[in-house]
Design brief:
The chain has helices spanning about 5, 10-15, 35-45, 60-75, 90-105, 125-135, 150-160, 180-190, 210-215, 240-245, 280-315, 340-350, 365-370, 385-400, 450-455, 460-470, 515-525, 530-535, 540-545, 555-575, and strands spanning about 25, 85-90, 115, 140, 165-170, 195-200, 215-220, 230-235, 255-260, 260-265, 320, 330-335, 355, 355-360, 375-380, 495-500, 505-510. With about 575 residues, the chain is α/β, with parallel strands linked by helices.
């Protein structure tokens, strides 16, 4: 059985018929779905749509049986002692919040400590912070070394008899490290502390045995293991779950209700208020069945893909690989000297290669490493060695594009032949009283940067001109890279300063992204031609469309540029 056989199980790759092949290297965010999962969900809605547990009719009974069989599938898959220990949730985040909420109701008290690690996803930080604030707890953090590998020796001094809970990711979502959770669980048990393992990134890539680990709680999301979104699992040891109060109350989880009092059902229903995500649960059951069927092949394919990826990345000049390369799932984070991560991600997208760029919901980790983010490649069993090699070749080309020093005088080399398009001739006088009824006067033919973009012959030429345009940006001094001038809502960091000069504005800005600097220069160019009152009428999206840039600017980046324009307009309103 080969990697091509596994890939054939995922119909999305056959349906993505585009000019460039779609390379999906973002499985850490969500995995694609095999046909068996899709068929199971479709079958539920087309053939067996009925509520579970309470109804007495035939279809409901059959659906309930399938629903509970999925619970047994999960229990067997992670080696739980009983299906009663499997609680359905919306996903990892809700599972963690559930545990935090119920533990806060009398099982943790002021003076207790919660131990986390510097590697944690925000979902395994913020819930604990909130109950720490509420109850007067202390959060302690096991640090990482300069590569982002957990410093296990430091855990011994942090886990003490004051520790009420240790919550740790089985695998780092940002770096791919496999953490020594068994060792930490043993250490926590020595002091009587509870343990919660975030298995969101581990569940599809490693065998999980909760009894062998001896953890108290284990959580994961269905969409990380080829299942649907909106469904997840909380495993908890039965004796613990039985002693904890309900998380939410309402239908399904009750035994008897009267105005004099209410009693609750036993496990697992005590924690499953309301109508559940039935289709999601059935889909997750099918996903678990898929993994159990092909597990050895899945692991072998992913191991080969990861080895090829790391070997290729090491050959790129300036490459910095983060994490533990010898103890990782098929996820690799990297950064490259003198190359902005956001720029890499944007240009990879233009080659139809999907990766994740940023802090990966792990801001404290990035702060510990002294970086603002990474490029993360996360593979799965449906990827191929050909895709890895294609990605490496494209990445080398992108690095060459982003890193060389190009002379500024080349920026206007394509600006002579095509007639300019004029939205409104700026030479036509517009009285202040007429401004409300007219668009801002923008003559593209009078703006070299805009014209160079409009006349670019291909998308790679467009991006070359954008980056060259960045050299024309009026750069903000580094002393002004402060909160006062930071534009919130940008995909990349942007600092902006506005100065009134008569009836016009002088704009200066900076971003670590070459592409963002270029885009800023391009949108500042028409603003320099407009009076302060005319700037109020500037339509960013219409302007980008006029230049042919609309399709090259992602929604998040477009929103960031709009945030810049809104800040300019806010300044204008304050000085008029």
């Amino acid at each position: 059985m080969s990697e091509s056989f596994l890939r054939q199980q995922f119909p999305i790759f056959d349906l993505q018929k585009v000019e460039l092949p779609w390379v999906y290297f973002d499985s850490g965010a969500t995995t694609q779905k095999p046909q068996s999962v899709i068929d199971t969900i479709n079958q539920f809605y087309t053939q067996q749509n009925a509520n579970v547990h309470r109804a007495s009719h035939r279809v409901s009974a059959a659906t309930t049986e399938s629903f509970e069989q999925a619970r047994k599938e999960v229990a067997t898959f992670i080696h739980a002692a009983s299906e009663k220990e499997i609680i359905w949730t919306k996903g990892t985040t809700e599972s963690i919040n559930l545990v935090a909420s119920v533990l806060a109701k009398g099982h943790i008290s002021a003076g207790d400590e919660i131990v986390l690690t510097a590697l944690e996803h925000h979902a395994n930080i913020v819930p604990w912070q909130q109950i720490a604030i509420e109850l007067g707890l202390r959060i302690r953090v096991i640090p990482v070394d300069e590569d982002g590998v957990l410093q296990l020796d430091k855990a011994k001094g942090l886990i003490t008899n004051k520790t009420a809970l240790v919550a740790i990711g089985h695998v780092s979502n940002a770096l791919g490290n496999i953490n020594p959770v068994a060792h930490i669980i043993t250490l926590a048990k020595k002091y009587g502390a509870l343990t919660l393992i975030d298995g969101a990134q581990a569940i599809a890539h490693l065998p999980v045995d909760v009894q062998a680990l001896a953890c108290d709680f284990y959580v994961f999301s269905g969409h990380k293991i080829f299942g649907p979104t909106g469904v997840g699992v909380l495993y908890g040891r039965q004796v613990l779950l039985e002693g904890l109060p309900p998380y939410q109350t309402g239908g399904e989880m009750i035994d008897k209700v009267s105005f004099s009092g209410t009693t609750f059902q036993g496990l697992p229903f005590k924690f499953e208020a309301g109508t559940p995500n039935i289709a999601g649960v059935l889909g997750l059951g099918a996903a678990i069945s898929f993994v159990r069927t092909y597990q050895p092949v899945i692991y072998a394919v992913e191991h080969a893909l990861y080895g090829a990826l790391v070997d290729g990345l090491k050959k790129i000049n300036g490459m910095r690989l983060w994490g533990d390369l010898n103890n990782s799932i098929c996820v690799q984070s990297f950064s490259i000297a003198e190359v902005n991560n956001q720029d890499m991600g944007l240009l990879l997208n233009e080659h139809n290669i999907a990766v994740r760029v940023g802090h990966h919901c792990a801001m404290p980790l990035m702060q510990a490493l002294g970086i603002d983010g990474t490029v993360r490649v996360s593979l799965s069993c449906y990827n191929t060695l050909d895709e890895v090699q294609h990605f490496l070749q494209v990445l080398e080309g992108i690095v060459h594009t982003l890193r060389p020093h190009i002379h500024c005088d080349r920026i206007f080399e394509h600006t002579a032949s095509k007639p300019s398009l004029t939205l409104i001739n700026e030479n036509v006088p517009i009285a202040d009283s007429e401004i409300k009824d007219k668009k801002s006067p923008i003559d593209i033919g009078a703006m070299p940067l805009a014209l160079s973009i409009q006349q670019a012959s291909s998308w790679d030429e467009t991006y070359r001109q954008i980056m060259l345009a960045g050299k024309q940006l009026n750069k903000l001094p580094s002393d002004d890279y402060i909160g006062q001038y930071e534009v919130m809502g940008c995909e990349s960091q942007v600092w902006l300063k506005c100065d009134k000069q008569g009836n016009y504005l002088a704009l200066s800005a900076y971003s670590p992204s070459k592409i963002v600097r270029g885009l800023l220069a391009i949108i500042f160019e028409p603003l320099a031609h407009l009076t302060i009152k005319q700037i109020e009428l500037f339509d960013l999206h219409a302007y980008l469309d006029e230049l042919g840039l609309g399709r090259h600017v992602s929604q998040s980046r477009g929103n960031g540029l709009q945030a810049v324009i809104e800040q300019v307009k806010a300044y204008v309103k304050g000085v008029i």
